[in-house]
Amino acid sequence: MKSFNYKSATNTKDASKLISGRAAFLAGGMSLLPAIKLRLAAYTDLVDIKKIKGLSGIKVSSKSLKIGATTTHAEVAVSNEVNKSIASLAILAEGIGDPQVRNRGTIGGSIANNDPAADYPSACLALNATIHTNKRKIPAEKFFKGMFETDLKKGELIEAIEFEVPEKSSYIKYPNPASRYAIVGVYVAKFKKEVRVSITGAASSVFRFKELEAALTSNFSPSVVENINISSKELNSDIHASAEYRAHLIKVMTRKAVSSC
User: Fold this and answer.
1) pLDDT tens by residue, 207-242
2) Dihedral of CA 64/69/73/76: which sign?
């Protein structure tokens, strides 16, 4: 591992000021540190934000669930507030990695990294989330740009993620048996006027499946999924699964998600 300067911030203003050159924010470090160790990334400075008050915690209202950026996956999984308002989000968090990852990794770090097979980005799209930063509010639709790419600017820090509370929702994934990353994960959320379906693990970045959404908005039933043609053309093909198999999994996981709602 190449050497770097370690810095610690006590508030978001200081954290932004400490970001200079090739630097990154450090919370749980579950994605960042392995990338540095494997020489997939190199930074001159790491700015620790775990001590910043106000970046963790969970707040719920009748219409939304707001989770602080440094809240761990384990905290989301066992939260009474999350389980009561969006139980599928707690189930998603419980299925991330192993106990070490869940107790160190953070929701903000996960979406900032935007791994193509990460779970939380699918929740952000399906639950019509808003990403609150120290500079602005970003709709999830505009936040995820591509593989490991987001709309965050240099020095911009995620403070919280606010999810819209649906009438029903479910997240089902086919996990890699070693990493528990999603080979394919499907998040279905039913709202009063629409159904949103987001897919992770299948392509270069998380995406909404508009044709499935339209069909399920008209008839929220697992049976309608059978009539949707799912092309493998733009899907990933690797040692874990072919593009054709991923297309098949999208259909299977969507049916299961709708049935679980």
Assistant:
1) 999 999 999 999 999 999 999 999 999 999 999 999
2) negative
For residue 222, give both structure tokens: 């697992």
Q: Among 156, 140, 133, 159, which Cα is nearest to 200's?
A: 140
**For residue 163, which amino acid is it?**
F
Please tell me the pTM assigned to this model. 0.96
Q: What is the CATH number of domain 167-261?
A: 3.30.390.50
Tokens for 94, please give them. 């419980």
CATH class of the domain defined by 5-48: alpha beta
Q: What are the domain boundaries of the chain?
A: 5-48, 167-261
Q: Is the dihedral of CA 227, 144, 167, 195 positive or negative?
A: negative
Gap between the Cα atoms of 84 and 78, Å rounded: 11
Rounded CA-CA distance 124/158 in Å is 14
